[in-house]
Amino acid sequence: MEAILYVSHGSRVPAARREAARFVEQCKAAIDIPIQELCFVELAEPDIATGVDRCAAQGATRVIVIPLLLLSAGHAKQDIPAALKAAKQRHPSLEIVCGAPFGVHDAMIDIIIDRIGEQPAPLDHESMVLLIGRGSSDPDTKRDIAAIARRLQEKTSVPHVDVCFLAAIRPTLDEGFKRAQASIYRRVFIVPYLLFTGVLMKTVERKLQAMPVSDQQWHLCSYLGYHPRLVTLIQQQVQALSAAKKGA
C-alpha cells in the first residue's frame, strides 16, 4: 500500500504550521492515495522519523516523500535523506522514494505573477521587481533564484528584476533595498520568495516600514504561499513516482 509523506520546512510560528496543514488537506482531496501524512524538517512536530512511523503503522509498504520546499539546498540534499536513511533502518521492509523540491519551474513564475497581480499598481515599463530569496550557503540557491528572475523578466517583459537574500549570501536584503532606491524605476514590487509566513516575512515588512518617504512607490507582494498551482505540481510528481514503481 502506498503512502505520501509531505515534508514541510517547519516554523515556530503557529500560522505557518497551520498553512502547511491546510495545504496538505487540499492535496489529500486531489490525490487518491489512502495514507497521507505531514511532517516537518525542523522547528515543529511531527518530525520526519515520526511521519514515516505513522505511515508504516497504517500499513504502508511504500512511502512517497514529497518535500514542500522551494529550492534544492541543505534540507533537500542532506537533512531529509539522512532522516529517511535512519527511518529505513527502523523499517527495513518499507520502500521509501523521495521526490524533489518545486525548483525552477514555470508554475513558480506564474505564482509570482499572480502575487504581483494582486497589487493595485501595474507592472509596466516604469516598474522593477525585487525578488527576495531565503538564502543558503548552497551555491545552487543563488543559481536557481537567478534563473527564476530571468524567467520572470522574460515572461512579464518588466524592465528589471533584481534579487537579494535574507541570509547566508549576498546581495543582502539591505543591499537589495538600497539598489532599488537608487534605481530609475518609479514602482518597486517586492516579492518574498517564501512558501509560508513567519519570522523572515516579518523581517521584510519591518524593512519596508523603515523606508524613508519618497516619490517611489513600493509594493510588498504576498509571499508565495501554498498556491493551488502547487497541488498540480505535486500530483504530477506523485504520478511519476507511482508510475516508476509500476514500470519496475
TrEMBL record:
UniProt xrefs under InterPro entries: CbiX-like, Sirohydro_Cobaltochel/CbiX
Family annotation (Gene3D superfamilies): 3.40.50.1400
One matching Pfam family: CbiX
GO molecular function: lyase activity
Protein known as: Sirohydrochlorin chelatase
Species whose genome carries this gene: Geobacillus stearothermophilus
Upper taxonomic lineage: Bacteria, Bacillati, Bacillota, Bacilli, Bacillales
